């Protein structure tokens, strides 16, 4: 009986690990798809309006800048604007005056202003509404040199500057793939930047 129980527990341990890896791969796939969809939506925006959106109407806490390139964290008001919703609570809707629906978001969390902010499918380590770890961030090539310097993300410990040759980049932060030491012990999983400029792999 003890042998049977030990065999079952080993099999359950293996099964749990496989299920956890499958869930993580699935969430990573969804995140990559959403990054590419957001990037494509902004390119459609540029094709329609012939300019990148200014971040001057965006809440100051959501603005991003890297050199001469500007962008923002996609919060609730920007998500509404990108979906073509004429939201009079903020002036961000003026960035899309014709209310063109460029993209539909499917997953939200309430931000510090109680607005629904699009987030990636990974669970946050914090319940604080000011936590922007799982939010999507975007930078536009506003100076026209076809290069964007993506700054390090404070939420990802090992994040560094990344130069991307593109007109728009979108990124978020996800948990790193869990790795094990030579003795089989699990290493601590840190957060990593996951961007639209990366090629998708199964790690």
What does the model show?
It is a single chain. The mean pLDDT is 86. It is elongated, with a radius of gyration of 20 Å. A hairpin with a 5-residue loop joins strand 3 (108-110) and strand 4. Helix content is 27%, strand content 19%. The chain has helices at 2-49, 76-82; strands at residues 63-66, 69-73, 108-110, 116-118, 137-140, 148-150, 162-164, 168-175, 191-195. It has one domain (24-195). It has 203 residues and is of the alpha+beta class.
Our Rg estimate from Cα atoms comes to: 20 Å
Strand order of the largest sheet: 1-2-5-8-9
**Molecular shape:** elongated
Q: Main sheet, how many strands, which sense, barrel?
A: 5 strands, antiparallel
Helix segment count? Answer: 2
What is the string of helix and strand elements?
HEEHEEEEEEE
What class do helices, strands and sheet pairing give? Answer: alpha+beta
Mean pLDDT: 86
Q: From the structure provided, what is the oligomeric state, counting identical versus distinct chains?
A: single chain
Task: Find the count of extended strands (DSSP E, 2+ residues).
Answer: 9
The percent range for strand residues is: 15-25%
Low-pLDDT runs: none
Fraction of residues in helices?
A: 25-40%
Report how far the terminal alpha carbons are from each other. 38 Å
Domain module count: 1
């Amino acid at each position: 009986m003890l042998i049977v129980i030990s065999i079952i527990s080993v099999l359950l341990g293996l099964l749990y690990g496989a299920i956890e890896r499958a869930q993580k791969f699935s969430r990573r796939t969804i995140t990559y798809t959403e990054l590419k969809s957001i990037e494509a939506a902004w390119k459609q925006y540029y094709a329609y309006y012939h300019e990148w959106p200014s971040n001057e109407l965006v809440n100051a806490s959501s603005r991003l800048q890297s050199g001469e390139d500007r962008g923002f964290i996609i919060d609730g008001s920007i998500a509404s604007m990108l979906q073509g919703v004429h939201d009079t609570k903020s002036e961000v809707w003026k960035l899309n005056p014709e209310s063109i629906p460029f993209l539909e978001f499917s997953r939200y969390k309430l931000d510090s202003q109680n607005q629904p902010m699009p987030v990636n499918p990974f669970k946050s380590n914090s319940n604080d509404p000011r936590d922007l770890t799982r939010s999507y961030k975007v930078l536009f090539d506003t100076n026209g040199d076809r290069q964007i310097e993506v700054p390090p993300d404070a939420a990802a410990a090992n994040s560094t500057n990344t130069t991307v040759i593109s007109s728009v980049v979108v990124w978020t932060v996800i948990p790193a793939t869990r790795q094990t030491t030579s003795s089989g012990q699990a290493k601590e999983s840190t957060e990593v930047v996951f961007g639209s400029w990366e090629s998708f792999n199964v790690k």
